[in-house]
Design a protein that fits this description.
Layout (H helix, E strand, L loop, with lengths): L2 E7 L4 H12 L6 E7 L4 E7 L2 H7 L9 E7 L14 E2 L3 E9 L2 H5 L14 H12 L4 H11 L2 E9 L5 E7 L4 E5 L3 E5 L9 E4 L5 E7 L2 E7 L12 E2 L15 H7 L1 H13 L4 H8 L3 E5 L2 H17 L2 E5 L1 H4 L11 E6 L5 H10 L4 E6 L5 H8 L4 E3 L12 H21 L2 H12 L1 H8 L7 H5 L2 E6 L3 H16 L3 E5 L15 E6 L6 H13 L3 E6 L1 H4 L10 E5 L5 H23 L17
Bound molecules: 5-amino-5-deoxy-1-O-phosphono-D-mannitol.
Amino acid sequence: MCGIVAIASKQNDIADLLLDGLTNLEYRGYDSAGIALLSEQQLWRQRCIGSVKNLRDKLQLPKMNAHFGIAHTRWAVRGGITEANAHPQSDGKTVVVHNGIIENTNDLMKCIPDAIWESQTDTEIVVHLISHFVNKGQSFYEATRNTIKMLVGTFALVILHKNFPNVMIATRKVNPLSIGKMHNIGFFISSDVSMAPVDSFVDLADNEICMISHCDNEFSVKFFDSEDKELPYKIWRKANKITTSSSKGDFADFTLKEINEQPNVIQKCIETLDNGDYKHVSEMMKNKDFINFFGCGSSRYAGLIGKYLYEKFICFTNVTIPSEFNYGYMRNPNESLNFCLSQSGETLDTLRSLEFIIDSRDVVVITNVANSTMSKLAIEHSKPIIDICAGQELSVVSTKAFTAQLAVIVSMLIEFVRLSYSESEAEYLRDKFGEVPKMLKNVLQMNFDVQWLLESSTILFLGRGICYPIALEGALKLKEAAYLHAEGLPAGEMKHGPLALIDEQSVCIALAPGYDNFEKIASNVYEVIARKGKVMLFTDEVGLSQFAESNSDLVKVITLPNCMDVQVAFVYSVAVQLLAYQVAKSRGTNIDRPRNLAKSVTVE
Ligand code: M6R
């Protein structure tokens, strides 16, 4: 979602640094971009719809000796995708970049009836409020503090003001913002410093204000808490930079690269299991009657796969949709053990659920980003964190992070079985889990005939048991990557309604491993063929030996490795990812950054 970069620099390549910073944030997803620079004499800004590259190509940089600059990638929430709505927002005096959403914008607009509005954004209210307070004689700091006190919602803000050309202010509430030091150069502020050219950094706390000033060619920084007390010090942490340049390697895109990384990612998780890293969590699971997963999108589906595995071995397991839980539509028993699943650790819906339960429930955060907002919250409350160790995932379409979440879920299960059942049962599961990387390597060699999908009007993924959440995940991948409408269904539900959709134009993708209830899903397939619907049957040799329609023109059989439930979770998930990828390739979509979507979803 939106990305912020801001720089205080002694050097004159500030625009380049800002644009490089934006390029590093592109993975978050966005639809417009912009930049502003401030010098003693001039406030300059340029914005455009589309990519950072567009902005770079269009850039008409004036000659100016700027020490401060701010830049932004916007993912539209309030106000359409237009240049006027792109950030930085400005009234010619105050200039602002903003992540988050100001929910009381309409009310606040009444406080400044004379303001002239340039955009439809909520951000512009911040611009007008700060200018309003400065015009009344307040300092830049006071104007910022008084403005943020009035805001309801979430924000990360970096602000410049023409009357104060030697100061830059940053502040935040909920949306992350970090201040980095660039040795001998100045400061670099970003929504994600992991790829920024900084030596060390600090994270701003909620409602803290950071003020960077320039004097005699040196910069100084001050931090103020929400009570306006200057903080005597902040602990600067050493930056461990992640570099992504050329990291696509030989792959056409990040999605394909990340799909192919999965055997190694799972192997790494198996090694973590062998190191005994899951013992503590399995102890937590031991006397629980209720386990709950919170997660959105693919993370939710990973939780649903967990439900099928945990209900078999552990206890009643629920999966809660955070955006439904947060506003009182769902309950969570006092004695529950809750796993918050989030690749990014930033998804606001999941973060809100975590905030609601963190003081009163047992919670474990499972994420891929050690420095994420959820991880920090867990640390503050002494709650365990499990790092899924997938390595940075750049494609918006989650693949390796999804299977790494499954690997953690399976690892916790194996440790639980060791603790509560028997060593031999745990070892049996461990051995089966250990076979997964090799199985995935075989799946990754497959090429699917996707023609039917390219021509179809209705695509249904069908699964039973653990394959039902995989069907949901397959449909989500096809929507995101290939922009095709697909739904995932429990196969047994077909006859209760969806069967009405079946005709010559429809395709069902049946996920049907042979080891469990194959004959039941086979019946659902026969029902589809009988109504002239086409079927792509993902099964194995065990399933195939029981299938009566393999010669039908309406069926394409895809033979996957023979596997049992723990393995099915990975093998069938990777197969549907690869299928979605190959369809997307045929349709020529922007797979790494699908339209309208963001990697890190920081609005509700
Ligand atoms: O970072 P999170 O795991 O919290 O993200 C949750 C969803 O936004 C995410 O899984 C989304 O559904 C992916 N784009 C799916 O590919």
